[in-house]
Amino acid sequence: MSKVTIATVAERAGVSRQTVSNVLNTPQVVREETRERVLEAIAALGYRASQAARQMRTGRSRLIAVRIEPARDGINGSVLDRFLHGLTDAAAPAGYRVMLYTATDDTDEIATYENLLTSYDLDAFVLTSTHHGDARTSWLAERGVPFVTFGRPWGAPDTHSWVDVDNAAGTAMATRHLLDTGHRRIGFLGWPPGSGVGDARRDGWASTLAAAGVPGTGLDAATEDGIESGAAAVTDLLASVDALVCASDSLALGALRAARESGRPCTVIGFDDTAVAQAVGLSSVSQPLTQAAARCIDLLAGVLDRSAAPRQLLLEPSLVLRQSAAI
Amino acid sequence: MSKVTIATVAERAGVSRQTVSNVLNTPQVVREETRERVLEAIAALGYRASQAARQMRTGRSRLIAVRIEPARDGINGSVLDRFLHGLTDAAAPAGYRVMLYTATDDTDEIATYENLLTSYDLDAFVLTSTHHGDARTSWLAERGVPFVTFGRPWGAPDTHSWVDVDNAAGTAMATRHLLDTGHRRIGFLGWPPGSGVGDARRDGWASTLAAAGVPGTGLDAATEDGIESGAAAVTDLLASVDALVCASDSLALGALRAARESGRPCTVIGFDDTAVAQAVGLSSVSQPLTQAAARCIDLLAGVLDRSAAPRQLLLEPSLVLRQSAAI
DNA sequence: TTGTAAGCGTTATCAA
DNA sequence: TTGATAACGCTTACAA
């Protein structure tokens, strides 16, 4: 069984090559009966269009690229993993495949764009881990390269399509749950101000307390992400709180440990619902990653036709409650 | 700046298109001086070969495909994640890119091969999660599709190239460590017999005990993977052991929990060194995933030239010791 | 509604 | 050592 091309199909169906192409690309233009004959030939021969030939002609590869990052502290790395799986899954029915690349930083990533675009004719990029002053989005936008971001353009105008999870809603939900279960001294353990995500997560906590008329002033701490740093940062706070909302599962784990060591009971809620949270029974705010990935693909469709205006989607996280028992 | 093709370069260097192609593909055949002039033109114009055109001519895409699996229980999923990152990293310098696909089972995966091969001209596959009676490897082998597996061909002959981690050596290392630190009642918690990986991990434990003349009979338990099931399966065992080697971090976590609840001190060592192990301070056997990925790419080079005979590589895991404190 | 012709950018073949 | 020519398989005009 040698290579089945459009010519093979045409011959078998007794039509010209062009008609076969029309059946594939503009079916409306082909008479019903002819179309059926062609489709039957396609099925019988197991014909599949060559991407390379199609790409050469159209300049589009039906490939989208995503950066795979090293599993940072290993705890939060799994977030990207789940997102990637969702993306690959959602892309396939839309006729797209996902290509991976790595990069050490934004500059390096931009250099990779250049290569990917000129050598592979990549159709679009999906960016994750957006941040303030992100050089990548402006680079892509300037060149008219289609892309969507998972993560809003912190501080920049909404000129492109993006999907994000409502971080503030997540911590608000966690805070509300703590209030509902009778807690009144609810603290927050987060990251230093300046990161959009971190600030939003803090805001969700602060505003919920404010709305409930429960004081929160002085009940927060900030440190870089990590179990150790979280434990250290929260030590003083433990004297004045009986519950803690945290900006990440790593921090939450640190807080749990510090609480256990200090002997002060403290309910802790983390963020991201990572494997670690599942494992140790830590309540955590869960991002709808599969859904986020699917929405990214949806938005990409609009971006690729250049038809639709940029759209932005904010997804609601959910709260996964567990008995914060240690292992 | 419109599209820079081989013709643009040829014109600028004052040579024919073919000479430019020769500089790229068979430099030996081009006179030094000419080659330099061409290379200079390439650099000046920022020329990059079009993959699509090249692929159409050669039939090779410089793309390798890997399946991304859903993050199963979330704990062990990160193993694949790290492997993927290593693979993408190692493939790039070799001139290859990694494409992702998903599949629900082996049959579905084989259907995907068919599509990927005929539509995208994929050059090779990297398979993970090999198992007994793996239909995928025989399908690929029959059709002469280049592939390597991360994981040996359990029960089948070594007719293809693969990389694997010496599972038995990992549990042996863990068992030896326990012996060295004075333990004499060392149990094993693993999976039901029949999975190659699980059996190997059990063997490493059993043979090390046997070699040391320490009895192990009756000190093992088997259950499906998971924290809950691990905890349940190990309950009885806890009366007769003071240390446990486990086939996974999930099982180890279950064992730790059961031990804590029963009040019997028990040293536990897990397998895979996942984020959870790091988080809770669980000692664990660590697989050299980055290295495994790099070796897969190395072996693939041999498979792709059809030059070298199949090669097999067994990598040594390492033992990461932590204070098995709970969080 | 269907067919013809041209060309996308590259490399393999062959001749100069 | 270099250059001309012909594919590779497809789609987009345009003509029938």
TrEMBL record, chains A, B:
Residues 4-58 form the HTH lacI-type domain. Signal peptide: none annotated. It comes from the Bacteria. Pfam families: LacI, Peripla_BP_3. PROSITE patterns: HTH_LACI_2. Keywords: DNA-binding, Transcription, Transcription regulation. This is Alanine racemase. The lineage of its organism: Bacteria, Bacillati, Actinomycetota, Actinomycetes, Micromonosporales.
